[in-house]
Amino acid sequence: MQTINEYMAADHARCDQLYADGEAELLSGSFENGREKMLAFEAGMRRHFEMEEAILFPAFEEATGMTQGPTMVMRAEHVQMNGVLAQIKESLEIDDPDTTLGAGETLLMLIQQHNMKEEGMLYPMVDQQLTAQVPDLIQKMDAIE
Amino acid sequence: MRSSGLSLDQAPPEDIPFRFFLTAPVFGLLAGSLILYRGVIVFSSSWHFETIALTHLITLGWIMMIMMGAFYQLVPVLAGGQVPWIALSRAVHFFMIIGILALAGGLIQISQLLFPVAISALLLAFTVFLTQLLTALFRVKANRPVVVAMRISLISLALAVSLGVLEIGAITGLWPPLIERSIVKNLHVTLALSGGIGGLIVGVGFHVIPMFYLSSPFPEKRAVWILRAGMFSLAAVSVMLLNSAGSALLFTAMLPGVTASIIFTLTVWQMLLKRKRKVVDATLRFWQIGLLAFPLSLLCLAAHLFWPDERLTFAFGLLFLMGFAATITNGMLYKIVPFLIWFHRFSTLVGKVKVPLLKDILPAKRTSGQLLQAALAMLTLLPGALLQIDWLVRAGAIFWLISSGWLFLNLIFAFRQKPVTND
Ligand SMILES: [Fe+2]
Ligand SMILES: [Fe+2]
Prior knowledge:
- The complex is a heterodimer of chains A (145) and B (423).
- With 145 residues, chain A is an all-alpha fold.
- Helix content of chain A is 86%, strand content 0%.
- Chain A has one domain: Four Helix Bundle (Hemerythrin (Met), subunit A).
- Chain A has helices at 4-27, 31-64, 70-93, 97-129, 134-142.
- Chain B has a domain at 1-142.
- In chain B, 77% of the residues lie in helices and 0% in strands.
- Residues 52, 74, 78, 114, 118 of chain A line the site of one fe (ii) ion.
């Protein structure tokens, strides 16, 4: 059976790949392809946040009673990441690849240390404490557009 | 419940890692000045007091300073443990500075009275540091490879510091020598370098390459194997050294650890080559230089067992300390420092006001210039020490001074970035 950690880490890796593809295109100077891939990355990130904020975190908070704990910190970091994502989207609209790449680098550092904490602590806690609900949670998250 | 009290927001106050990071290049400047002033004499004998002073300006002043700052910063992220009594870290930093200056001052024969100061200050600093970090790391239940590597590093450091203190006390006549000096020296160096420094760099290396360059993850089973082989060799070499074993036995004891180090190097190199991100930055180059210097340093160390020429010791020291450890820690600063500035000062302002990006906090052209100086220092000091050419050594010292000063200015530049308050 797939664990939450495996399922979510795979989605982190998928978003990472989308970013790397977009960055490579922008570095090589093909702006159109780069924009397309970066927008796919942006959509991927927003979908991932929704999986967590609409399904995973509420389930964790309900099961543990911890609403001021790790999920609160993760939500706050999502807000920061969303802010930088908005900057990326804006720079794509005005054809400013330098800013896209700079904001991307900044966002990537945020994402990586955020994911490290989720994969190292939060997801294992979910797997441990909500074991019976895992298949159902995965199914619900899969259904998100 | 085990998870109670677990907060994911355990980063230390920004001044704690920064005070350690900013100090490193200052000791780099002191080390460079000593080489410039004394020239090739510092590469004449590894027993030479000035050589020992130089070594400790680099190991404690540069490498250990960055390692301490990194431990305080990274343990919450990589291991998920909270570092207790965090405010005491400021005292650790203060006593490290006093201790290193007193040790170096004593060794370059300013005054014998500095040795007791060095012993007390360094013991105090390390006792607090090690207690904080070992408490944090042994509370962590997860035995991820990075946690194991960090524990190996801290325990090796504890032993290395004890041996070092034992040795200073014996030199200054505070107490009689317990073990033969050459045994203490070899044990001290083995534990400090392979266990203390090597342990942390390897452990952190498991994670930061995938993080920064989106490479595939370091294979977990291989990481576990590397750490086991390293621990085995560390213990075996220590036992051999204590029993004054011959070269062949020592080499055999070293072999698993050396093999593990080479496998680590090749794996990370491969991960870098196959990284998903195509971007090339100074940190990547620093890692590549470090990964080249690492196996070369081990080659010199192994050769030294069978061909006991002091010049091989210096080649090992330069390659391991400056080429590998100082280079990789230098590169890491360029990733960690701008991010921490951004995280502490600007992350909460995102979306509200225009915030700088990492590239604005520390522009790439500032870092690549320093990288070149660091590489030139290595390329001149190495032949200078090997061929015993005084002017080459002094030229190397100048490159090293430029490199250290440049790093310092870069860190200060990043440190000065603050949100603009519009009133
Ligand atoms: Fe998240
Ligand atoms: Fe996530």
